[in-house]
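Appendix C: a fully annotated inverse folding record. The material below is reproduced so that readers can follow the format used throughout the book. The structure is listed first as tokens, followed by the designed sequence.
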């Protein structure tokens, strides 16, 4: 049995007045492609991708990472590359106010994580009747099998596609860079809704 640890990466809004964003715009072929599918897009989106800043959030703090929409600062993308994450495709993003069009923030990238991995072991409890590939599966007592992760340091969990998992090396490296508002939840302590 491996001692490798995996963490669910997300953002914490508790310490700052974090900027809330709208949804990612539709992809060119939204019947075949989705940011949660963990695969290359059949048709690449036009860049830059514009993501709306929710009304009233224009002066809030933009976070270095958002799970949904899946975007991160260039600095965080660079840090992922430094630790060996090589299975992401990035696209230029502009954050733009919906009510004050002059308010725009650049320096962000949309992240398409290539890798949708079915890695849970027996003992993981599914609380819904969802199928593999369901974005909204609820689970507890999650146990991952490291041999099924295909050596990836970052991937989407096939049993809950909106969940992005990182290896402990990624967690440690990002923490060493002092990115604010990142949250890491050990997979076996997570409760996915």
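Designed amino acids, in order:
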């Amino acid at each position: 049995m491996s001692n490798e640890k995996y963490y669910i990466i997300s953002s914490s809004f508790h310490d700052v007045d974090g900027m809330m964003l709208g949804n990612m715009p539709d992809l060119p072929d939204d019947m075949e492609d989705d940011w949660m599918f963990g695969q290359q897009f059949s048709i690449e989106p036009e860049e830059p991708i514009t993501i709306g800043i929710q009304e009233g959030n224009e002066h809030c703090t933009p976070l270095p990472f958002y799970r949904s929409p899946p975007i991160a600062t260039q600095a965080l993308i660079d840090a992922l590359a430094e630790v060996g994450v090589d299975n992401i495709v990035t696209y230029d993003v502009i954050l733009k106010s919906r009510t004050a069009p002059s308010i725009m923030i650049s320096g962000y990238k949309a992240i398409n994580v290539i890798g949708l991995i079915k890695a849970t072991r027996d003992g993981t409890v599914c609380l819904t009747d969802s199928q593999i590939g369901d974005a909204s599966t609820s689970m507890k007592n999650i146990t991952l099998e490291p041999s099924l992760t295909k050596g990836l340091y970052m991937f989407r969990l096939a049993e809950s596609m909106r969940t992005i998992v990182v290896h402990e090396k990624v967690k440690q490296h990002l923490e060493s860079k002092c990115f604010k508002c990142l949250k890491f939840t050990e997979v076996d302590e997570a409760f996915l809704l």
